[in-house]
Amino acid sequence: MNKERPFTTIGKRVFRILSGFELALICLILLFLLTFFSTVEQQWIGLHSTIKKYFDLDSFFVVPRNEHDKIICFPLPGAYWVMAVLTLNMILGGIVRMKKGWKNAGVLVSHFAIVFMMIAGGVSSLSKVEGMMLVTEGERSDYAQKYHRPSIEVFKYNEQGERQAPLIIKSEDLNHLRPTDVLRANFANEDFHFEITGFFKATNLFKASNEQKGKEDGPVVDGFFLREAVWNVDNELANMAGCYVSVRDQENQEIEKLILWMGNSSPVSFSHQGQRFGVVLTAEIWPMPFEVELNESVGEYYPGTRKASTFQSSITKVTSNERTDYEIYMNHPMRHGGYTLFQSQWSDAGERPYSGFAIVTNPSDQWPKYSLYIATVGLLGHFVFMLIRFAGGSARSKEKPKS
User: Fold this and answer.
1) How far is the C-alpha of 156 from the C-alpha of 164, rounded, in Å?
2) Based on CB atoms within 10 Å of each CB, which residue in 148, 225, 278, 373 is the most buried?
3) Would you call 259 helix, strand, or coil by DSSP?
4) For helices 6-19 and 21-45, what crossing angle results, to 10°?
5) Which DSSP string corresponds to 43-58?
6) Cα dihedral: 132, 120, 329, 147 (round 10)
7) In the β-sheet with 192-200, what is the strand arrangement from edge to edge?
8) Could you report the per-residue pLDDT of 227-242, keeping only the tens digit for each?
């Protein structure tokens, strides 16, 4: 009698565990807990921070906390990794392990559709990019600014005082910084470098003569200092990053001390070897392959408030060889070459109204829709097969002669 090899037996056990219903049930319970606690915590730390904490690729474990930062639950695995395990479980248990044949063809197709939808979510979380484009009525724009991605632009001024093409310190170099960290940034073809310190994702800028400086506040530069602000959960776009920059020469001698704040749209400047430079902390620029011309922007406010209740825009998408008109309103975006443009803001506070367009590029944008179509075909096919089988069985039972 042949005995199974030990590694074969272990492999079968691992396969049974990974493809088993028990693992699927554990994953679903964990997802329920993560969804519950993330929904609760969102009211205190905001939507963006909640998604980053509970659903990000880097979140291996999550500790739910209350509004006073007290732990309210034991550590949970991050939702991204729970979904990855559940996807593997569905592939092994719902596709590989399932008996093949016409009898189960519809269910097999439906399981494939669910796996396809889960994969779409993973692709989206890894590759989706989001930003905001602001356009005033009667004007055009060909760029957006990426959400929560501050960058530093350094540019020369020519003799006419015009900005030259900027050198950029990218958001991925800044976003991981803690206030105590020091980032050295070098620039090609320039004989100076930056030392960036005191970086906060949410800050307020104060004039030293008007506000008492605390121990935790940053140093005073040109009569101003930065103070860390409480994260604005109601309007996350209102959170303004800030930092300090020490401009240093090749001998590491300080040329200038600068204070950068995203709420200040005007660049600060310094001079080095007779050349004037400008520096600005701003949301990372995201060039578009098209222009948006805002023809008309209309909306209404909730009674007694300045909060927009409804809004829509008439735009013209301009490319190198064509002009196309669109009406953009709720659940009716513009799509172009993998970019989707929704209207998310509107205001008539200035001389002319403006619209804010949320722009998303996501290669798996339409995959969930396709997966629903596939699942519908699979379930409908399974229903028809079972109906025919039931009708055939009933017909045969009636034909049997009575004894």
Assistant:
1) 5
2) 225
3) strand
4) 50
5) HHH-HHHHHHHHHSTT
6) -10
7) 183-186, 192-200, 242-249, 254-261
8) 999 877 666 678 899 9
